[in-house]
Each structure stands twice: as C-alpha cells, then as structure tokens.
Amino acid sequence: MSQLTFQEAVIQGISEEMERDERIFHLGQDIGPIYNGAMHSAKGLGVKFGPRRIIQTPISESAMVGAGIGAALAGRRPIVQLMFAEFLGLGLTPLACDAAAMWYKSDGKVAVPLVIRVLYGAGPHRGHSEDYQAWVASVPGIKVAMPSCPRDAKGLMKAALRDNNPVVFFEHMALYHGARQDVPEGDYVVPLGAAEVKSEGSDVTIVATALMAQQALKAAEQLRGDGISAEVVDPRSIVPMDVETVRRSVAKTRRLVVVSESWKTGDPLSDLTASIAEDLAGDAPLKIARVGLQNTPRPFAMPLVRAAMPNIQTITEAVRRITESR
Amino acid sequence: MTPDANLLTSLYHLVAKGRVLESLLGKLPGFHPGVGEEGVVVGAFFGLKDSDYIAPHYRGALLAAHMRGADLRRLIAGVLGKVTSYSRGRVRGDICLPLQFNTLGMFSGVLGNPLNISTGIALAASLDGKQGVVVTSFGEGTSNLGAFHESLNLASCLSLPIVYVCQNNGYAMSTRTDYALKCASVADRAQGYGMPGIRVEGNDVVAMHQAVQSAVARARAGEGPTLIDAVTYRISGHYSADPNDYQPKDERALWLKKDPLLLLKARLTAQGVMTDAQLTEIEKAAEAEISEAIAQAQADPDPGLEVLGADDLYSPVLERVA
C-alpha cells in the first residue's frame, strides 16, 4: 500500500500490466521521456519501457486509434493516449463504427483489446475540459471507465488492460494531481461494470462519477448535518453500467439524484435514470432529480464555470427539493 | 523481368474467375462490382505469404478474400445475409471479410477506416519482427480522406511494412478523378510523406503484380511503406442499379480495349502459353464453379433469430494474461 495521486495510480497500473504482459504497448503524442505525456500522463514510462513500447506519434488521432485497433487485431494489446477527450471525435469513426462491435459482427471471431486514454474535466487546466462521454457510451461495444479516486483509477486501468474489448478510460484533470490515497500495490483490479457505494445512507441515492462523485460525497456530509442521510453510488464505469447496485439503493431510498459534469441532454446517466424509473416507478412513489451542466458550450471565465457547473450547493439543493415531503 | 508460364497461368485463372464473380454478383441487388478492375486486385494480392495480411478495397473484396482461402459459397452467402456466411448474417458480407484468412474487410461502410486499421496491423508486424507485411487497397476517392494522409504519414514516421495500393478506377461514384484530385497521380502524394510513389498500369496484371512485389520486398526488408497508384477503369456502375450513363462513350470505348482480361489473354496466346481453346475452358470452369456457389448460397437458409444474440456484444474478459 502506498499513498498515490490519481496520476501516479494510473501510471502504476499501466506499468505493472506492461511488466506482466509484453503484448501491451503505448501509442501517443509526446508520451516519451522528453515530455512524459500531457500533464505527466505517461511519466516515467518512456524511460522504463523504451521507444519500442512507448511509441510517439505525430498529431494523427484517427490513425492512432486505427493503428491501435489494427495492432489489437494482430495480437497486441495497445494503449492509445488521445491526450484530451476533446479530441475523441477525431478518432471516432474507426473506434465507434468499426472496432466497437467487431466481436459481435464477426460472430465471435475478432476481439479488439484496446484502451483509449483521455484527459478531461473542468479543473486546473484552462480548456480541454469537454468529456463527450455520450459519444462513446452510446455505441454498443465500447466500454467506458470514469474513476473518481486513485484506488479505482489503478484498479480500473488494470481491468481495462485485461479486457478483451475497446475501453475508453477517462482521467479527470481536477483529480489528477489532487489528493493522495492508499492504493494497493500489485494485483489490485476493479472490475468494469461494478459500482461502489461510496457512502451509505437511507433517505436519498446520489449517483455520480469522477469529480462529481467527490462533490457528491461532500454534499452528503453537509446533508448529514441537516439530518438527511444520502447514499452515494459511484458507477465507476459508465459502460457497462451497474444498474443493479443503483436499483438496490433506490429501492431502499425511493429518491434518486444523478449528478453529471456533462450536459443533461444525451447524458448516459439519463439512460440510467430512465432504467431505474422503468423498473421502480410502478412500485411506489419515486422522486428523481438531475443535476448537470446547462445545455450550452462550457463557459471559459471562472465565475461562469462556477455558475454553470454542478457543485456541492446544486447537489444539496436537488436533494432537498426531493426530500422536502419526507 | 519476363514472367514465366506458370505465373501467367496462375494470374489468368484468378483474373478469369474474378471477371465471372464480379459480373454475376453485379446482378444481385446493392452489390458494388469491380468488372474491369480484376487486374489490380489479382496483381496486388497474388504471391503473398499466408502470414501476411491484406485489407482490400470493397470493390473486388470477395475475389481478394477467396484468393486468401475463403470459401466462395460462404462469401456469397455473406452478400445475401445467409446463416452459412462467416458472420451468420450479422454483418454485410459484401464488404466485411473473414479475418481468419488474415484478410481485413470493412466492419462499417466508412471509407478510410481500413487504411488506419491496416496501418496498425503493420505496426504489430513491425513489433513482431518476423518480416510480415500488409498490402491494403482503396479507391482514389478515399485518398482524399484524412485517414489516408494520417495513415501514410504515420507509416512513414514509424517505417512500417505496408504497401498502399490505390485502385484508381477514375470515378468516386459519379465524381471524376480529374475533378476531385488536383495532382497528376495519386502516387504524387507519396512525396509529401517521404515514401516512394509509383504509378502502374493496373490493367496489366503482370506489371501490377511486379510493382506490388517489389514494394513488398522493400517492406519485408524493413525499408518502409510504398504508395502505388494502380490506374484502371470502372466498367461496372458504382453499384448494381447504377446505369453508369455518365461515363463518356469514347472514354469507355478506349478502356474497354484495355480490359485486363483481354490484355492477359493476348499475352498468353502471343507467348504460346495457352491456346484460345484452353483459355475458354478455364473461363467455363470458373463460370461453372461460381454459378454453383451462388446457387448454393441462394438456397442456404436465412439466419434464425437466435443469431441476434443480445448477450454476445463483448468478448469474454481474459481469465489469465499471457
């Protein structure tokens, strides 16, 4: 066990997996030992594994994703770092149209073990915050991980690298060089598709990932002071979504607040909300609230960002709104 | 280099078969036949090792897959969406090919993706260090896509063992090459990526084969990628129902004289390799084989609804890592 930041935990996960499986290699821009990746997202890997496994590319996201897919088809297990999720669109046709369902389309003959890494999220980096998670989450066959803490970041990265399908791995910039956490060394794997109840409660269920999961935990603490017991569920991966864990929680609380840093429109958590409503709304009264980014481009100036983004206050307000008649 | 009789005979068998295949499949609805372009397909993909990979252009894809060992009846069943196809009817078999023959098809209708993906297969071949190569083909229309430029540049930067063959048939649907490309040859584009660019008469299957084999030897030796502009002509319409009435009559007449099958037959008889009667016999055998495969595929059953397989989306997670 050692105290690691999110970024250090991701690197530890990659490094351990690269040591145990020589089929894994890493493609990306500026990921070599000169620059070590945007925001140190590949720190130390270039020195440790050398240029045959840490391969620098020109600015060519479409070719990088395609190259990752092709190498995966030919028996490798590539990682492609696209730097920022804002650039996902550049690699989307090979990923979403071709790679996503090769296993299904080929009737189980062709697997694509590929991890796409992207940085995103409102935070210290002014810009590149868009996540466009809905683009990848809406296509059948792509798994999507969105860890909220260093432990999950390492465990999910190891799961992604052992998975036999394309996985898009989101790394939040506000968490990246943030709080340290005890992270188990060695074989610590967090399965994709397994939510975790981060904080137990009985009055309301708050579902959130990444930075929003951290905000939700702080909101839950505030609410506890007001006598409201909130249960915080972190899906950890958007695809596959662990609907069952959320359903179990909401069946108990009968109140659901979903919090997303993304737009409400097309938000994968809105699909989750619909599934929960479909399953539980008939049984007894069910209250639902969604907290998300307003449906505009993300603003730039800090006061506008603060006003537009979900935060502890908007989360607690949403909770209060649906717990008033408790 | 003068090709020997065996090579010429092998090439003829394939071009003749390709002609029958493209002509007969062109009668099925929605097919994109490659009549007149068989010389490029056969020349590009003949003479590779089983361990090499190919990623053929969709026009001529079935001929290419068959050359790699895929079964004709099952390939044609893929065009028809029959349960006997390689995907049991899950994917359109006119463009998506069975990868078990080291043959990459299109897993979507998006042009350019196979260029990117085959470049990645070449990256794996390079990392494996076993002198494997990839030969991929695509239309001249696709050479205007970003995927083409990104792939070639990346392959050149990493010195990958891949041969890019442009099956330049003069038309992207109805858009003429001289409208959409402002360089004299697709091969000129190679200069921008620091790789050799070679223009070849694609209808001369022997010249085509030799050009690709030289590039393959270069790739195998670790000297990097090559771009080949294989100039041919689309005798078929863009797809089955395209009347193709936008091709100027005189242009078409000129190219019909340069038909790859006619050119090869003339060569075989002139060199005394085969008589007209022998050539006709081979054509008839090809026609019988392919007609039979089509008839069988047509009689094959449609997939049952169990093929929908809602739970088959993901490849199982590996239990153990190698």
Essential attributes:
heterodimer, A: about 325 residues, alpha/beta, 7-stranded mixed beta sheet, 5-stranded mixed beta sheet, 13 helices, 14 strands, about 40% helix, about 20% strand, globular, B: about 325 residues, 5-stranded parallel beta sheet, about 45% helix, about 10% strand
Report on this model:
The complex is a heterodimer of chains A (326) and B (322). Chain A is of the alpha/beta class. Chain A has 13 helices and 14 strands. Chain A has helices spanning 6-20, 45-49, 61-73, 92-98, 102-105, 133-137, 150-162, 173-176, 210-225, 243-253, 268-280, 302-308, 312-323; strands at residues 2-4, 24-28, 54-56, 77-84, 114-120, 143-145, 166-172, 181-183, 196-199, 204-208, 230-234, 237-239, 255-263, 287-293. In chain A, strands 3-2-4-5-7-6-12 form a 7-stranded mixed sheet, sandwiched between helices. Chain A has a 5-stranded mixed sheet with strand order 9-11-10-13-14, with helices on both faces. A two-stranded antiparallel ribbon of chain A has the order 1-8. In chain A, helix 1 runs parallel beside helix 7 (150-162), helix 3 (61-73) runs parallel beside helix 4 and helix 9 crosses helix 13. Chain A is globular. The termini of chain A are far apart. The model of chain A has no long low-confidence stretch (mean pLDDT 96). Chain B is an alpha/beta fold. Chain B is 43% helix and 10% strand. In chain B, the strands form 2 sheets. In chain B, strands 1-2-3-7-6 form a 5-stranded parallel sheet, with helices on both faces. In chain B, helix 1 (5-25) packs antiparallel against helix 10 (260-270) and helix 1 crosses helix 11. The longest helix of chain B has 24 residues, at 276-299. Chain B is globular, with a radius of gyration of 19 Å. The interface between A and B is large, with 53 and 50 residues.
Summarize the structure.
The complex is a heterodimer of chains A (326) and B (322). Chain A is an alpha/beta fold.
